C-alpha cells in the first residue's frame, strides 16, 4: 500500500495552524488525494503550544507518531525544536525564524534558548528558517504568516502549486484571497532554488 | 460528488441533519461542543436546538422530545454524562418512541478534562446500545443509522466518539440534509412514563429481554465484523481499530467492535478459532473482558496482562509496541525518539486582558493565607497564579469551599466559579452554603459567556443558541434570593474596587458573594469593542518587575525594562499595579 506523506504543523495557539491544515486538507480534495488530520482544540488553544497532524494520502488514523513525520512546518522556531523528535530520518523542517517568548520566561525566569542555540540544536536535520513575519508584512498583513509558511513548505509537499493556490482561495475569507496568494508566492519564492 | 474536508464533530452534526433530526440540546464540553454549534449555525433550520443550562436538563429535554415521537439528540462530554446519569439509567426502562441519541464524547489522555472515564461502561450499565466509531467517516455512517436503531429497539442509543474522532478531520462525502420532519405528539401511557415501582419492575424485565436481539443485530448489520485470516487474531474497537488496521499483517485475523452489546456467541465462535488473541482498545478493557469471558483455550493478551495501558490515549506507535510485546509483528515499526530536553514549557494561559487574572491578583493581595477552591472553566488556568487549590467537577467550588469552611479549618475560604458554571450546578451549592451558615467568600467570575469551550451563549449572555434575545438573568438576584446577605458587583478591571470588596468580605461573617464582571476579552473583541493599548514609559520604569509577575502574556521584560507587546487589549490593570506609574494608555490600536 502507498504510504501517506505525514506533515506536522506546530506553533503557538492563535498563529493559524488550523487554517494552514485546512488549506492542506482542501488541497488534497482538489488533487483527489485521501487525507486525515487531527487538531488541538479547547484548553490547549489559549496561547499554548499547538500541533496539527495531517496525513496526505492517509486512509487510517490521523495521528503521526514520533520519528515518522516527513515534514514539520513550524510557525515558531522554539516549537520546531520542541517537536523535532516527530521528524523521521531524512525528513525536513521548514520554520519561521521568530520565537514567541513563553510568558514563563518573564514570570518564572525560565531559560529560553537563543535563536542561534536552537539552529545549532537543529543542525543535524534538514531545517530551513525563513522570515515569515517580514514576508507576511510584505504581502500585506502580519496575519498571513501561516500562508507564507505553506508557500515556503510547498517545495517539500506532494501537492501541486495549483492545488494549493486553489485551496487557499477556497479556505480564506474572500476579501483576503489576494493578500494570501501573495503571501504564498512570497513564501514559495524565498526558498526557490 | 461533493467531497469535503470536515471536522469529526461537524460530520456527526451533518449526519444528524441527514437523519432528519427534529430536536437537539446539549451543554458545551470539549471535545463535544462543535456538534450543537454546527447545528445551531445552520441557516435553514427546520428543527429545534438549544444550549441547556446543564447536561441533566439537556438530557431530560431531549428525552421528553423523543417521547413525543420525534428524533432527538443530546450532546455532552463524558463527565457531563455523570450529571445526566440519573435520567440516563431510567430512560432505558421507559424507552423511547422517537429516535433518541445521546452523544457522550470521551477524552482519552484528558486533553481538556478532569478524568478519563469510559462512556461505554455507562451504556453497559444502563443496558442501552452503544456505537463507537473508529474513524470520522464511520462516525458519519453510524450517526446516520443511530436514530433508526433507537426507534427499532425502542431505547436511547449512546454514541461515543473520542477526542481523536471529534477533533480529527477527514475527506468525507456528506449527503444532503433530509427534509422529512415530524411533529411531536405525546401519547399518555403511565405504564411506560410513570416509573412507580409497579411499572418499573415490568419495564426492567422488558429491557433485559431486548438485549440478545440487539447484540445479534449489531453482527447482522456489520457494526461488529470479524475476518478469519490465520491462527492469531487482533480484536479492536474505536479509534484504536484504525491504528491496528494500519499495522496488522495479512495473515492475522481481525475483528472490529463498533457497537455494544457484543454478541457473546458470535465473539466466542471467533475467539475459539484462534490460538492467541490480542485486544487493542483505549481506556477500560470493555472488549477484553468480553473476550476473556468467551475464551476457553485461546490465550488472550491485552491490558489485563500488561501489554497495553489502562490510561491515556493510544497512537500508532503505542499499538505497534503492544503488538510486538504480545508477539504480533506489526507491519511498521516506530523509532523511539525522546523529545528535546530543556525547552521552556508553553502551557495555555489566560488571555491578555482577561478579567480573571486581575481578580486572582486582588484575591492574592487580600487573602494571603486563603484557601481557594475553584471550578471548571478558563479560570482553572489560575492554577498558574497559585490561586486554584481544588477543582473536581462542575459546580464544586462552592460546595468544596463550604465543606472546608465547616471542617474546623480556620483560614479564610475564597472560591471562584464562572457564570456558566454557576448557572450549571453552582446555585444549589450556594443555597446550601447560605442555608447551613458557612463562612466563606464566593467570587463569581462573570464574563457573560461560556468561554473555554468556544464562546457558547448561556442564560447570562442574553441570547439563545440560535441568537434569539432571552430574558435578562440577574446573578445578583439569584444570589440574594437564596439568602446570601451580602452581594457586591465589581468590574474585573477595577483593581481598587476588587480589593475593597474582598477586604469587606474578609471582615464579614457568613456567605459573601462578589460578582466580578467583565465580558470575555475574546468575545468583546468579536463584538467590536476596542480599547487603546497601554505602553511602558522606559524613562519612568524602574525595572521592578511587578507588572511582569502579573503574568499577562502582553508584558515582556527586556534589558531591565518592562515592554508591552501588540497583544495588549487595553484592560489597564497593569497600570494600576505599576508602583512607579510608568504604564499609561497611548499605544496604537
TrEMBL record, chain A:
Keywords: Oxidoreductase. GO terms for molecular function: indolepyruvate ferredoxin oxidoreductase activity. Its EC number is 1.2.7.8. InterPro entries: Indolepyruvate_Fd_OxRdtase_bsu (IPR017719), IorB_Oxidoreductase (IPR052198), Pyrv/ketoisovalerate_OxRed_cat (IPR019752), Pyrv_flavodox_OxRed_cen (IPR002869). It catalyses: indole-3-pyruvate + 2 oxidized [2Fe-2S]-[ferredoxin] + CoA = (indol-3-yl)acetyl-CoA + 2 reduced [2Fe-2S]-[ferredoxin] + CO2 + H(+). Residues 13-188 form the Pyruvate/ketoisovalerate oxidoreductase catalytic domain. Pfam families: POR. SUPFAM superfamilies: Pyruvate-ferredoxin oxidoreductase, PFOR, domain III (SSF53323). Catalyzes the ferredoxin-dependent oxidative decarboxylation of arylpyruvates. Heterodimer of the IorA and IorB subunits. NCBIfam families: IOR_beta. This is Indolepyruvate ferredoxin oxidoreductase subunit beta. The lineage of its organism: Archaea, Methanobacteriati, Methanobacteriota, Stenosarchaea group, Methanomicrobia.
UniProtKB/TrEMBL annotation, chain B:
Residues 532-560, 563-588 form the 4Fe-4S ferredoxin-type domain. Signal peptide: none annotated. It catalyses: indole-3-pyruvate + 2 oxidized [2Fe-2S]-[ferredoxin] + CoA = (indol-3-yl)acetyl-CoA + 2 reduced [2Fe-2S]-[ferredoxin] + CO2 + H(+). Heterodimer of the IorA and IorB subunits. The keyword Transferase does not apply. It comes from Methanogenium marinum. [4Fe-4S] cluster 2 binds at residues 552, 568, 571, 574. Keywords: 4Fe-4S, Electron transport, Iron, Iron-sulfur, Metal-binding, Oxidoreductase, Transport. [4Fe-4S] cluster 1 binds at residues 541, 544, 547, 578. Its cofactor is [4Fe-4S] cluster. This is Indolepyruvate oxidoreductase subunit IorA. InterPro entries: 4Fe4S_Fe-S-bd, 4Fe4S_Fe_S_CS, HACL1-like, IorA, Pyrv_Fd/Flavodoxin_OxRdtase_N, THDP-binding, TPP_enzyme_TPP-bd. GO terms for molecular function: 4 iron, 4 sulfur cluster binding; indolepyruvate ferredoxin oxidoreductase activity; metal ion binding; thiamine pyrophosphate binding. Catalyzes the ferredoxin-dependent oxidative decarboxylation of arylpyruvates. It holds the Pfam family TPP_enzyme_C. It is an enzyme of class 1 (oxidoreductase). GO terms for biological process: organic acid metabolic process; sulfur compound biosynthetic process. Binds 2 [4Fe-4S] clusters. In this family the first cluster has a non-standard and varying [4Fe-4S] binding motif CX(2)CX(2)CX(4-5)CP. Its EC number is 1.2.7.8.
